[in-house]
Amino acid sequence: MTQTHPEKQKNHLAPNKPSPVLVIFAIVPLLAILAAMLMVALQPTQATVTADTVNSLNYSANNYLDKEAPFFELVTLDGEVVTLDDYAGKTLFLNFWQTTCPPCVRELPAFSEFAHDKTSQDIEVLAVNFDETSERITNFLAEIDVVGLPVALDPTSDVRRTYGVRDIPVTFMIDGDGIVRYWKLGAMDYFEMEEYAALMLTSAAANEG
């Protein structure tokens, strides 16, 4: 009778174990995929929702689209009282912002330039700051070198709530009849402001026709 060598028998019965090198090569790609997924999940996003695409969202600002803009009465940084009626016959870019909102701050210089360039075209800008003091706003605008931007104060957030604003920056484009034609959630650059101004002119011409 043939006898099996004990050592050979042990090797024969032992289960095959994966090589440590192969295990490392298998785990490293998985770790890389998990790290990439985590980075994407943590990546900050900036909202750029427009009135044309927001209909599926439960966002209260959209309730005013193609309707009369809520009346407001505010005091500017210069101490003047402004109301919605002051902009009758003009296109108004009504912007809501705060100094602690980075996207808001990014668009302020563009709004300042846009307001300066469009005054003669019956296009006005009113940047409504809420829940902050006039001293804080004045100092901040000086720090970022924004000059000539029409800024109004909404210290109790009454107007912000009236317009259904939850996230900022948000801008309402109101025509000369006081109707909200467009609104934009997220920062805008100068060229996008120009595009909305052109759309407002087209809407005005269509309404007159």
Quick summary:
The chain has six helices and eight strands. With 209 residues, it is of the alpha+beta class. It has an eight-stranded mixed sheet with strand order 1-8-7-4-5-6-2-3.
Please tell me about this protein's structure.
The chain is built from six helices and eight strands, in the order ααββββαβαβαββα. The chain is of the alpha+beta class and 209 residues long. It has a single domain, classed as Glutaredoxin (3-Layer(aba) Sandwich), CATH 3.40.30.10. Strands 1-8-7-4-5-6-2-3 form an eight-stranded mixed sheet. Strand 2 and strand 3 form a beta hairpin. The protein starts with 5 loop residues before the first helix and ends with a helix. The model is unreliable at 1-14 and 38-58 (pLDDT under 50).
Top keywords for this entry?
209 residues, alpha+beta, Glutaredoxin, eight-stranded mixed sheet, 8 strands, globular, disordered N terminus
Task: List the SSEs and their pairings.
Blueprint: H1 6-13, H2 20-42, E1 49-50, E2 73-76, E3 81-83, E4 91-97, H3 102-118, E5 123-130, H4 134-143, E6 151-154, H5 158-162, E7 170-174, E8 180-185, H6 190-208
Parallel strand pairs: 4-5, 5-6
Antiparallel strand pairs: 1-8, 2-3, 2-6, 4-7, 7-8
